[in-house]
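Worked Example 4.2. Consider the chain below.
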Amino acid sequence: MKQKLKKIGLIVIAAGLTLGQTSAAPVHKPKPAKQATPAKGKWVSLFDGKTLNGWHGFNKKGEVKNWTIVDGALVCLGAAQGDTGGDIVTDKAYTNFELSWEWKIDKGSNSGVMYHVIEDPKYHASYETGPEYQIIDDLGWPDKLEDWQKTGCDYAMYLPNSQKKLAPVGTWNTSKIVFNNGHVEHWLNGKKILAFEAWTDDWKQKKTTGKWKDYPDYGTAKTGLIALQDHGHKAYFRDIKIKEL
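Applying the procedure from the previous section yields the following structure tokens:
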């Protein structure tokens, strides 16, 4: 009888030890599912072809009256006096991106597309901070144009190469700006017409000895708004889209 009780006691002790080991074992919780991240590199339209949603006047609030929509195109009416007061900018700021658009101008017209534009009452125009993809009637402009003033330039900074081929005035062109951590490209009608690196010694030399020497904040922002210029002439834009990099 004693031996039987002793045997039962040993069994109970062994079971207790086994239970203790089991309960002390680490519990491996299932890993949480990975959170979905926004897809990168997707083209997003900046113009719906019907409204000015997503845009506003540079340094202004309220209704934009000097731009309108005609046949699915965003049209600058050329109401600004000179090169200030009429630009429109995106509501959203961008850092690294590809920006693509179609455009045309009338004979003798001037416009442009700028990026990394900063709004502040101390700035009178978008170009005081934002580098510009120049758009102008190279052949029909009434005054002599310097090479740095012609279509496709990084205005007053870098010149297009021999790949530049413009469609005739009054017909549509396709342009693109690529900005990626200081590397900049301008494209026109499917061809890369210039490339440069921002903020290098060469860039600084061009800035401080040329048109922008009196604009200390020109080109220094790494994030800012996209701007379409009203230079007092009619200009037409459509299929405006951006892909963040």
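Confidence is low (pLDDT under 50) at residues 1-38. The helical segments are 2-24, 201-209. Compare this with Example 4.1 before moving on.
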